Amino acid sequence: MLLLIPGPVQTRPEVRAAMAVDIAPWDDDTQAELAALRERLLAIAGGVPGEHAVLPVTGAGHAVVEACLRSFVPPGGKVLIPLNGAYAQRMARLAREAGRAVVALEVPDTRPVGAAEVAAALAADPAIGHVGMVYSETGSGIVNDPEAVGAAVRAAGRRLVLDAVSAFGALPFRMDAHPECDALAFTTGKCLEGMPGIGMAVARTDRLLACAGRAGSWVLDLAAIHDHALRNGWGSHRFTPAVQVLHALGAALDLYDREGGQPARLARYAENARVLYEGALALGLTPYLERRHQGPIVVTVHQPPDPAFALRGFVAALKARGVLISNFFSTATPTFRVGCIGAVTPGEMGAAVAAMRDALDSLGVRRRAAA
Ligand SMILES: *Cc1c(COP(=O)(O)O)cnc(C)c1O
User: Fold this and answer.
1) How many CA atoms lie within 13 A of 347 on its CB side?
2) In the chain, pLDDT over 90 holds for what percent of residues?
3) Most buried among 127, 169, 240, 255, by the most CB within 10 A?
């Protein structure tokens, strides 16, 4: 089965095989392994040892995004969130439920937020301390621009929390070039092509010290995780981590390095997305995004207006042809969503497009272009 979903992604056999061991978290070898993993991840994040720290939180990605918001935005503090997609909405909910005040910046889910829009919103409300932004919006496939938006946040003297969960490892971002960024969040199971189960933040250590005590949660307190590492070592854990996931991440990073790191991964994903986008057009389908806004992580396509089309039936017909895509959508209007990330080649993407053609034909879907 070819898994074309934006996490957990298709993985390589070497990564899956690395899970098949029993591991003691406190063992010296395990601790050395986590410490080494942190160094490798810090390098991918463009972090500087001592100035930035990699802070793991076992759990789904939402847990680490919540930890970033709780640890840096003060209780009752205002966070501006450009709402151009389902994951931005989720970030807003995480912040609200944690008792932070969300200032919504409404933006359609078909385009990135403009840096000028963010600058204007910040100028209009000096009480906003943070901007919370999703880098790659996994709901629609757009990519917001942390270079331009980060510069606007910096110029306004505010702080940035970046949800880079579906971007990290493929789309470029360097913490050392973004002093306005308190933290970015990512997970093991997306563009790094590891197993799901651990979220990680890369955070500024000066800000961790300055913001200590804000989280209102023991589990989701990045300052406490940092403090624990300072006292007990960079291989230590506060609670039982998903050790097999960490071990498999080492294998995934070996493959990442062998492929050529971030530029090579981005190039492969961008080619996957191009094959899919062109393929959808050739099948008479209408991609949800204009080509200039189409990112390399996820391609969403308007559901055909033909009454013979139903999402679940289409997903089942594709699955019968060896391709698994999401059986739900989270765009403003009905779409189907195809992930371009994971251990997937452009050749396999071409085969997936052929499977889509067969599936549509078998269902008798003739009217395919969006109205
Ligand atoms: C996957 C993802 C998350 C986290 O999702 P989980 O299901 O909690 O792992 C958060 N933000 C974005 C943009 C994502 O793509």
Assistant:
1) 0
2) 100
3) 169
